[in-house]
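User: Some background: our group keeps a shared notebook of sequences we're curious about, and every so often someone picks one and asks for a predicted structure to add to the entry. Today it's my turn. The entry only has the sequence so far, pasted here. Could you supply the structure so I can complete it?
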Amino acid sequence: MEIERQGRDMAAEERGQEAVEANAREQKVGIIRIWNTTHLNKYVLAGAVLASMNSILLGYDIGVMSGAVLFIKDDLGITSTQEEILIGSLNACSLLGSLAAGKTSDWIGRRYTIVLASATFLIGSLLMGLAPCFPFLMVGRIVAGIGVGYSLMIAPVYTAEISPATTRGFLTSLPEVFINIGILLGYIFNYAFVGLPQNLNWRLMLGVAAIPAIFVAIGVLAMPESPRWLVMRGRSEEARQVLLKTSSDEGEAELRFLEITEAAAAASNTSTTNDKNMDTWQRKGVWKELLLTPTRPVRRVLIAAIGLNFFMQASGNDAVVYYCPEVFKAAGIHKKKELVGVTIAMGFVKTFFVLLSACFLDRFGRRPLLLLGSTGVAASITVLGIGSKVLEASERKSKWAIVLSVISVCAYVSFFSIGLGPITWVYSSEIFPMRLRAQGSSIAISVNRIVSGMVAMTFLSISKAISFGYTFFIFGAISLLGAIFFYVFLPETKGKSLEEMGVLFEDKSRENSSREK
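Assistant: Of course. Here's the predicted structure to add to the notebook entry:
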């Protein structure tokens, strides 16, 4: 009895000591996070910008294709169905890249996966720019789509893994910022090349995308590898050196290193991190844990990430952006130069609001901006549907209805850029546990790509069958359902380290009942 009592006392003493150490560590972390709120690490910022610049490639393609397709239709004589396939194929094929990116980034590292994404898109851009016919153009779209899938998954994951908690929201929203910058550049190049001969202008519009792809592929080589991937590979000293560069001081670097190594050890059921960790993790079956036998927290994380990516694209963003000239043409704007000019204005609006959202993500949090953006998207696209129905019903195009449609489109892209646009990438990259992050993010982004492809490849057909107005009403209803989903399923993640995310998705009711017992 005496031995048992002594054992209980020793255990209680150890728990007390652990609690004291945890409390002291939490106080240090809190002090460091307060310091970091006003200090953005320049090395982290440079790495995040370089990684996120990959997203310019997708944005440029979205922007440039909306104008280039006007000339491709006339030059190659493609049908409306072929137009849908051409536009939607990049998003559909990006599914292959996003699915492969999780495994690839765990295998060769986050940094070289970014290089692979840029190189793949470079080849696709050159093929599209040199395309002599529609089938050749489609081959280029398929190759470019695979590169887009890689970049969409890896850029936010890499950025989240090198970023401190207090600036992670801003930094991981940079991919959406660069997507919008790419869209704007696409619109601008459309306008610049619109006066060239028809058989040359669209080829230059598509081929110019090869230039930023080369720059990104070279620039990425100067970036550090993700410290979390290095720890997963047993390269702890290299991870420590990266953390020293990406932290404000040595104390913060040590605390981040401790959090990462503890999470890695817990995930692999080992007390130390060694060179066999990655093999151990792979044998345990990441896909099985995600899809077949997930714990309740993992299931909740997966539902949140998949739901967020589904509603991002099901709200109709790609339809509005890709087919904006078609919508404005139906509204009564017919000159190609005017159509391209209106899209430039829309591009400036998108870019401004996504920058605004990125700057306030770490101050106001993810949830408020996401709820504001999604309800605004639902309202503005419903108003766009009303304007479209008025224009469809009148033979003479009412100026007020045209103005209403243009304002509604600008309002839609503004609210999307405040909420769903940047926050989808932030959430998708930060809420998965470390050993599941790459593969989990690839599943979520794959859903994003599937829905995006479906919307882009069916929008014209559905609109012709039921009208633009009713199609926009459907998008409005879906956006409203999305806002309800976000309110119920997505917790606030502001200020939390990646290793603390699991607590947000724990079963609180079960946890409380166990404490009462």
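Suggested note for the entry: The radius of gyration is 24 Å. Residues 2-37 form the longest helix (36 residues).
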